[in-house]
Each structure stands twice: as structure tokens, then as C-alpha cells.
Amino acid sequence: MAVSILPAERIRQLPPYLFAEIDRMKNEVKARGVDIISLGIGDPDSPTFPHIIAALNAGAAKPENHQYPDYEGMPSFREACATYMQRRFGVKADPASEIVSLIGSKEGVANMAVAFVDPGDIVLVPDPGYPVYSIGTGFNGGSSYAMPLTAENGFLPDLNAIPEDIARRAKLLWLNYPNNPTAALATEQFFADVVAFATKHNIIVAHDNAYSEIYYEDPPPSFLATPGAMDLGIELHSLSKTYNMTGWRVAFAVGNREIVAGLGKVKTNVDSGIFQAVQEAGIAALTGDQQPVADMRELYRGRRDLILDALDAIGLQPEPVRSTFYVWTHVPKGYTSSELASRFLQDIGVVVTPGSGFGAAGEGYIRFSLTLPTNRLTEAVERIKTLKL
Ligand SMILES: *Cc1c(COP(=O)(O)O)cnc(C)c1O
User: Fold this and answer.
1) Suppose 149 and one of 155, 231, 245, 341 were both cysteines; which one would form an S-S bond, judging by CB atoms 3.0 to 4.6 Å apart?
2) Are strands 122-127 and 365-369 parallel, antiparallel or unpaired?
């Protein structure tokens, strides 16, 4: 007799895959022979910079790199992270106690919940937001409380709108600026307000800074540069979007030493660190020439302007794109996010992401990603201009 394979309750409780309907429709349109262009996924299309690949190759040849790495990250890698934090943000961090390597920041987001969320705890999450904040919370028995990010409030959560009893029970607060999916930036004043709020209610603040280097105005700050932030905060940095390294799985967490130690304790028990050759490539990325990153920004800026121009031509009103490689735009009257995404796909073979996939407050928006070769983006732009809404 076969056993009945029943997944754990936490898996059975997962929300249905929100993009399943889009995927189904995409396959149907493809089957009609339509050349589909995807503006759906945020994954840099440009290759990793050559000096980083060279460091990987050199590192891969060293036998000492073939064994288990240090769980927390090689001392030289954590030194490079500290150097980067000081140079880029003016934030001082002790490599030995205030920095830990991550196998991509997604891993850090999920494991922060393992380290700090008990059943019944509340975690404050941005809505719309990266889904892993609430999924990690749910996997560990916590409940997410959605903080709506609205255009009226500059896509910053309204801390004053969080009910007192929720704030009292909250254990952890997630932030993400530069923001995916809204492309908004935080202000230093907002970060200061967060420190005051979290201090008052005894809440750990985790700032996901995956897009810190993708910006179109002044370089965005680190949350940790805010006075008091080091007492209650941790920040996740990723090499994925900055250096076109999404496939490499290398990132780091930096901040308060007790929070870093808690995250490190989970990792010591569930993973065994990052291949040291990848860490050596990470050192080359963080401490090497940053001009290729500036060139990437200009590439994205050009693509952003192409999309903004096309959206203007069909009467859509995108939010200001101040950072990231996304364009967040309101849908016109009479459409839901999914309905507009469906028009893009059915009428012109262009995949966009419905904002509702990022949370209830994302309803009424769609997101365009700029991570596809410019000639394909140009083709998408030509098609968008023909769309009659
Ligand atoms: C892409 C992305 C990440 C994940 O980055 P990795 O370091 O590749 O795991 C984390 N947070 C946000 C908001 C992202 O968009």
C-alpha cells in the first residue's frame, strides 16, 4: 500500500501561486505562435563583470577552496564587506562580529524568521512587497501584519497607522528601500522615525537593501547610518543586482551584533556557507572598480526612459522611477491589475507583473522590469505604443 504523501501544514497553508494564471495564459499565447517579450522578471540580463569572473576562476583552482568554507564567511570576505560599508555608506562594522555572509539575501530573509520569530509573534511587512518577508514569517508560525505603501505617502509605511496592540506584539519590522516593486526611496527622516518607533515598541528592524546601487538620483543611504539603528537593526546587502550576480548566490548581513549572531546561529545549523571561490569573486566585486556599476545605472536609465515614453504615449501614468530596475504604474479606470496584465499579454504578447502579486495594496498597479536586452525592450515599446486602452 502506498503511503499518502501529506506536506507539512506550513506548506499546505502557502497561498496559491499568484502568477499561475499569467503563466497559463502565457503558454496559451505562445502556442498561437506569438513572440512573447517578458517584462515580468527582475533578473539582470547583462553578464557579471569580467574581473569578477577572473577572480572566481583563480579561486576555483585553489585546493584550499575545495573544502567546507567558514560558516560565517571567510575573514577576508567579511573585511571586504566592512570596507564597502565604510566607503559607500560611512557605516563602520566589525567584520568578526557584525557581518555574516549569506547565500543570497533571500536566504537571509527566510532565516531571519527562523532566528527571531516565535509562534504567535507579529512581523510588520511592506505591502506591496517581496513575498519572502511574509512567507518566512508564516513558515515559523508568525503572523504578518501588512503595512500598506501608498502613493500619497511616498510608498513609505505610515507608522502612526499601526495599531498600538499590533506594535506591542510585533517582533520584527521589514523595510526595503530602494523599493521593489514601487521604485521609491526612503528619506533619512523616515529612517529616524523607524528607529524611534522600533525603540519604543522593542522591535527588531531588518532592512533589505538589495537595490542600493540601482538609483537615478543621489545614492540612497544605509539604514544603519541612522543614529541608533545599530542598536536594533540589521541590513541585508546582495551582490545579485549590483554586480549582475543573481546566479552566484552571494550576499551579506550587517548590523547589531546580537542580531547578526542570531542569524549566524541558524546558518551554522542549516547550511555550510558559500564556496570560497565565490567569496573571492565577491571580494573582487566589492573592492574592485565600481565604474561598471555606474555604467549599468546609465543603461537602466536609458531603458527606463524608453518605457516611460511608451507609457506616456498610451496615457498611463507611472510613478516616478527613482531607483531599481522596475516601473510601477497605476492601471486605468475599469481595470484590475490582472485584467490589464492580461491585455498586455493577449493583445501585444508582452508579459508584465500584476501588482496584486505583491500584496493586496499592490492591486491597481502593474510592474514593468527593465532587465532585458535593449533591442527587445525597444520592440516591446513599439508594441505598447499600439495598445488602445
Ligand atoms: C532580488 C531581491 C532579493 C534577492 O536577492 P538575492 O540576494 O539574489 O537572494 C531580495 N530582496 C528583494 C526586494 C529583491 O528584489
Assistant:
1) 155
2) unpaired
The per-residue pLDDT for range 11-68, each reduced to its tens digit, is 998 877 767 778 888 999 999 999 999 999 999 999 999 999 999 999 999 999 999 9
List the 204-208 sheet strands across, edge first: 99-102, 251-255, 233-238, 204-208, 170-175, 122-127, 143-148
CA-wise closest residue to 71 among 317, 276, 218, 245: 276
Q: Is 326 in the pocket of ligand 1 (CB under 6 A)?
A: no
Q: What does the alpha-carbon distance between residue 295 and residue 219 come to, in Å, rounded to a whole number?
A: 15
The response to whether residue 212 sits with its C-beta less than 6 Å from ligand 1 reads: no
Helix (H) or strand (E) holding 246: none
pLDDT digits (tens, 9 = 90+) for 284-327: 999 999 999 999 999 999 999 999 999 999 999 999 999 999 99
Candidates 105, 237, 369: which one to mutate for ligand 1, based on the most atoms within 8 Å of Cβ? 105
State mean pLDDT over 90-107.
98
How would you classify the pairing of strands 350-351 and 233-238? Answer: unpaired
Mean model confidence pLDDT for the chain = 96
The answer to whether domain 50-287 has CATH 3.40.640.10 is yes
C-alpha grid cell, residue 2: 502506498
DSSP state of 215: B
From the CB of 131, is ligand 1 less than 6 Å away?
no
- Tell me if the domain spanning 9-47+291-384 has CATH number 2.60.120.620: no
CA distance 120 to 316: 42
In the chain, domain spans: 9-47+291-384, 50-287
Band (pLDDT 50/70/90 cuts) for residue 195 is very high
Query: Does residue 128 have a cis peptide bond before it, meaning omega lies within 30 degrees of 0?
Result: yes
Give the three-class secondary structure for 196: helix
Cβ of 342: how many Cβ atoms within 10 Å? 18
C-alpha 1 to ligand 1 mean position (Å): 43
- Rounded distance, CA 44 to CA 339, Å? 27
Matching residue, cell 510592474? 367
Query: For residue 176, which atom of ligand 1 is closest to its CA?
Result: 13
Distance 230 CA to ligand 1 centre (A): 22
